[in-house]
Design goal:
Length: about 325
């Protein structure tokens, strides 16, 4: 695929994350929106919904969350804002991104492995990223050593790492990413640079990536924030079977029947996930063990108390008997006089 200027490419083919030209025709923008003043005042421009650019970004996001699922149908895209790199610093970062993209392409035989990736965070954090770039202290980054982004086809992962604002809206960044040659990183890795100059970024799985990992040393040269998607979602929880609406889990006839302890645990795993249930069971086991320990200590205390009381009674009885024997001996001695 021939190189096209980064910000002139916004459509995604979800099978391979390739980028096609979607801004060859005029795409009107709306820079005046009172509802999103926090974005427009930092230089973001709101895309008008009939535009081709808006349509492509919306379709890409919907595909990334599974546009045929019932839950996806309840997610409403409220607005899409574009980072036009209007300030000098942002324009410089965009130019720097292209320079590094060319350098990585030259190193990798002509392919910089450019992709789009999703990044979910709070509204304030996204504003900070757009204005000043990524930072190791970004709360949604995962750790201080790297930035993790979700591939185009896993937009839902970024939704879960986002935070609802005071209006109930969540916001996710769509970023252009230079991946180059990737190396596999283990979970919670503290690696903050490639193991050798051969590599340019990290990934959780080369054959089926779920996370693009960009080290902190490259986070503002290899990641370029391009769009902010603002959405309204139902209340979500993560379960072993995927993502469920918390407010749709209601009792039914299955719950009215008596079930075994094993069936209850399996049902809880389906709803809350294996890790959550394991944590609950472990906590319950610890509390039960503690209670058993406390009960045993109490029983031992009673036992010790009873043993002490019994010993005292036995001693008192022996003393009384000895006193009786002594009295008999004294009486006998007196009688013999």
């Amino acid at each position: 695929m021939s190189q096209i200027p980064v910000e002139d490419q916004v459509a995604m083919t979800m099978n391979n994350d390739e980028i096609a030209d979607a801004t060859s025709e005029s795409n009107p923008v709306d820079s005046c929106s009172d509802d999103f003043e926090f974005f427009t005042k930092i230089g973001l421009t709101k895309l008008q919904e009939p535009s081709l650019e808006h349509t492509i970004i919306k379709a890409s996001f919907c595909t990334g969350i599974g546009d045929q699922s019932e839950l996806a149908k309840k997610i409403n895209i409220v607005a899409i804002h574009k980072n036009s790199h209007s300030s000098r610093s942002r324009e410089a970062r965009a130019d720097s991104f292209q320079v590094f993209a060319k350098a990585v392409a030259d190193k990798c035989g002509g392919d910089a492995n450019l992709k789009y990736g999703w990044y979910g965070a709070s509204r304030n954090e996204i504003c900070e990223i757009v204005m000043h770039g990524f930072s190791w202290c970004n709360t949604a980054a995962g750790n201080r050593y790297s930035i993790s982004l979700s591939p185009a086809k896993f937009a839902f992962d970024s939704v879960l790492s986002s935070e609802a604002d005071e209006n109930g809206l969540r916001h996710v960044l769509l970023c252009r990413v230079i991946l180059g040659k990737q190396e596999v990183l283990t979970a919670n890795s503290n690696q903050f640079h490639p193991t050798s100059p051969e590599f340019d970024s990290g990934v959780d799985d080369l054959s089926a990536p779920r996370k693009y990992i960009v080290w902190s040393v490259y986070m503002n040269t290899h990641i370029l924030p391009s769009y902010v998607i603002s959405i309204k979602t139902p209340c979500l929880i993560e379960g072993s079977q995927g993502f469920l609406e918390a407010n749709t889990i209601k009792p039914n006839s299955k719950w009215e029947k008596k079930i075994t302890r094993k069936q209850l645990i399996e049902r809880m795993k389906e709803i809350a996930g294996h890790q959550a249930v394991a944590a609950i069971v472990d906590l319950f086991a610890k509390k039960k063990s503690l209670l058993r320990g406390q009960s045993l200590n109490f029983q031992l205390s009673i036992h010790n108390f009873l043993n002490k009381s019994t010993r005292m009674k036995v001693a008192a009885a022996a003393a009384a008997k000895a006193k009786q024997e002594l009295q008999k001996a004294v009486d006998a001695e007196i009688g013999g006089l």
